[in-house]
Amino acid sequence: MIGLFAVTAKGRRSAGELAAHLGADAAVVEGAVKPALRRIWPRLGAAVFFLSTGATVRLIAPLLTDRHGDPVVVCVDEESGYAVALTGGPAANALADRVGEFLGCQPVVTTAAESVGATVLDELVELLDATVDGDFADCAAAMLAGEPVRVINPLRFPLPAMPSNVTVHEEPPPVGPQWTVVVDDRLLAVEGRVLRLVPRTLVIGVGSSTGVRASAVTGLLADLAEHAELDLRAVRAFATVDAKSAEQGLIDAVDDHGFWQDSAPDLLHYPADTLAGVDVPTPSEDVRAEVGTPSVAEAAALHAAGELADGSPVELVAAKLKGDKATVAAARVRPRGRLVIVDAGPGAEDLRAPRAEVELRRAAVVVGLEADLERVRHLLRQGTEVRVSAPGDERQRAAEAVRLAAAGRSVALVGSGALVGPALEQADERIEIAGVPGVSAVSAAAAELGAPLGADHAVISLADAGAPWPVVEQRVRAVAEADVVVCLRDNADWRLGAALDLLRLHRPPRTPVGVAGPGIGTSVAMITGFDPGVVPPGATVVVGSSRTRAVGGRMVTPP
């Protein structure tokens, strides 16, 4: 919910116009501001005050508890000259921009660290589990100052939205005076002011003879890094065959590597017959004769990387390199694009899952229908690309989101959980897909209507695009005969009437029928004489079973 508060006639007029512009979630709060604010504060996702900043601060200060959970707050002065973002970080900045654009006033962004990039840099380090090399504070200060900063991302990690002064490249652009942030597991040659973020993507496979010295392994690692231009700070784990896991020289070399890492990587080991099943470019029959597998270094690197990849693609980036009683090879866990299907809930701000807001702020691209995007636009970080889809086939909407994610981007597809299936059907290993559940329209309607779903129930969509009428008719007839509560969604007029006619054949005349939906309110009537023409668009119709009763204007179905 977006609450708008005003005390003067002029402020109330502006608040009313703005509420209409912001959509169904926005409402002008009537009555004395202080008690009204205290009453609805827990339900607010955002608030706009047509008051002085001093008065607004005094009102909200006692109510603030957690910067991640507190509502977004924007303050508009009496003359509508400025829209000041007070709390809420990037979401407040975005809302101030929207308010300013509509009212023709100047947005004032006061949360500089969050709005222009410092938190993006921190977030990158956390998301990538990256080692930082360079003057992090100075680079962050440049972002805060609005200086041009370029990010080089050759492996196409799914980055969050970037502020307008940051550009993203896959290859190094021409040398310039600006800061360059390199996100890579290789030692790319980049001139100028450089901040390196080294993600842990590499697994080193190691084979050895009995009695190998630690110095032989560490020296060979240095040769491998130079030969393949790898940054050994990107090593996530070492791997070998079971028979060599107790070699002291190998153990010491891994421990030595840990001295200049934040923590020592694991030394993983696998049975010879497991490694023998890994396809490698340079197998050796001599190695097979000694340890039971034609490859140790390459096979161990690839197999361990596959175990750690969690579905991400794996590639051998450095073939076997031989040294004094040792061999090494390197595999990479490649990053995947990220697609999150965000169910924004049935409409009310306070019914949206907190995780949905986290994922929306993380996404670099947000895809959805205009109506769905308008409900969450104020939550988006500055720099987020918004793709508005035309109403129609959910598969087409999912296809656009999948295409963007396959290109290595971080994408949020806003809609319902029904989009997860079409997205999964069209995705491949290049994409990580996650879903953020929301309160369904049916659950929200049931809560408003009382307790109609206390026993078995069914949900049927009556949409023309969902299924041909003979199929829908068969489903309605089945639940009618089964005597369970049925929730009817996507109600086309004639289909709703036809469905109710089928249900009347199997329901007592006084069976309650409830109607509820976002911004609609509730109504309960008897199935006999119920008029489907009074059902507003977007409403859910709940038809009780033979045991459902109407109690005090609500519906109750005993368990």
How would you summarize what this structure contains?
This protein has 559 residues and is an alpha/beta fold. The strands form six sheets. It has a six-stranded mixed sheet, sandwiched between helices. The protein has a five-stranded mixed sheet with strand order 7-11-10-8-9, with helices on one face.
Topology:
Elements: E1 2-6, H1 9-22, E2 26-28, H2 33-40, E3 46-50, H3 53-60, E4 72-76, E5 82-87, H4 89-103, E6 106-109, H5 112-115, H6 118-128, E7 131-133, H7 136-144, E8 149-152, E9 166-169, E10 179-183, E11 194-198, E12 202-208, H8 214-228, E13 235-241, H9 248-259, E14 266-270, H10 272-276, H11 285-291, H12 297-308, E15 314-322, E16 326-333, E17 337-343, H13 354-362, E18 365-369, H14 370-376, E19 385-389, H15 394-406, E20 410-415, H16 420-426, E21 431-436, H17 441-449, E22 450-451, E23 457-461, H18 469-482, E24 485-489, H19 493-504, E25 512-517, E26 521-526, E27 540-543, E28 549-551, E29 554-556
Task: Describe the model.
By secondary structure, the chain is an alpha/beta fold. The chain has five domains: 114 residues, Rossmann fold, CATH 3.40.50.11220; 80 residues, Udp-n-acetylmuramoylalanyl-d-glutamate--2,6- Diaminopimelate Ligase, Chain: A, domain 1, CATH 3.40.1390.40; 132 residues, CobE/GbiG C-terminal domain (Nucleotidyltransferase, domain 5, 2-Layer Sandwich), CATH 3.30.420; 103 residues, 3-Layer(aba) Sandwich (Cobalt-precorrin-4 Transmethylase, domain 1); 115 residues, Methyltransferase, Cobalt-precorrin-4 Transmethylase, Domain 2, CATH 3.30.950. Helix content is 34%, strand content 26%. It contains 19 helices and 29 strands. The strands form six sheets. Strands 2-1-3-4-5-6 form a six-stranded mixed sheet, with helices on both faces. A hairpin with a 3-residue loop joins strand 25 and strand 26. It is flat.
